[in-house]
Specification:
The chain is an alpha+beta fold. The protein has three helices and four strands, in the order ββββααα. It has a four-stranded antiparallel sheet with strand order 1-2-3-4. The longest helix has 20 residues.
C-alpha cells in the first residue's frame, strides 16, 4: 500500500493504492485504490474498511501511508519516522575504504 503521484507539474496530489511489489506505482497497474491525499490542502481521504481488509491480507504499508492511517485512527499503532537517514560525505566514505585496505594489508604482513 503506497502513494501514487498524480496531478500536474508543481501541483502534486496522490492516490493511496495497493500495488504488487513487482510493479512500480507509476505503471498504473494497481490492484485497488483506497483513497487520495492532497498535500496542498492537507486533505486525506482513505477508505478505512478497505485498508483494514488489505492489511489483514498481509499487505505491507509504506511509512507515509502508515502515518496517515494512524492519524485517521484507522490503525492503532505508533507513527514511523519517515525521514531518510543522512548520507555521509563521499570523502568520508573514501577515507573509511582506505583505512580498511590498510588494516587488511597490516594483517597480511603480520
Amino acid at each position: 500500500m503506497r502513494l501514487q503521484r498524480i496531478g500536474r507539474k508543481n501541483s502534486p496530489s496522490y492516490r493511496v493504492v495497493v500495488v504488487d511489489s513487482r510493479q512500480g506505482p507509476k505503471s498504473g497497474k494497481y490492484v485497488d485504490q483506497l483513497g487520495s491525499y492532497n498535500p496542498r490542502a492537507g486533505e486525506v481521504a482513505i477508505n478505512g474498511d478497505k485498508a483494514k481488509e488489505w492489511i489483514a491480507k498481509g499487505v505491507q504499508v509504506s511509512p507515509t501511508v502508515h502515518n496517515m492511517l494512524v492519524t485517521k485512527k484507522i490503525i492503532d499503532k505508533p507513527k514511523i519516522t519517515v525521514q531518510a537517514p543522512k548520507k555521509e560525505a563521499p570523502v568520508v566514505e573514501a577515507l573509511k575504504a582506505e583505512a580498511e585496505v590498510a588494516e587488511v594489508a597490516e594483517e597480511a604482513v603480520a
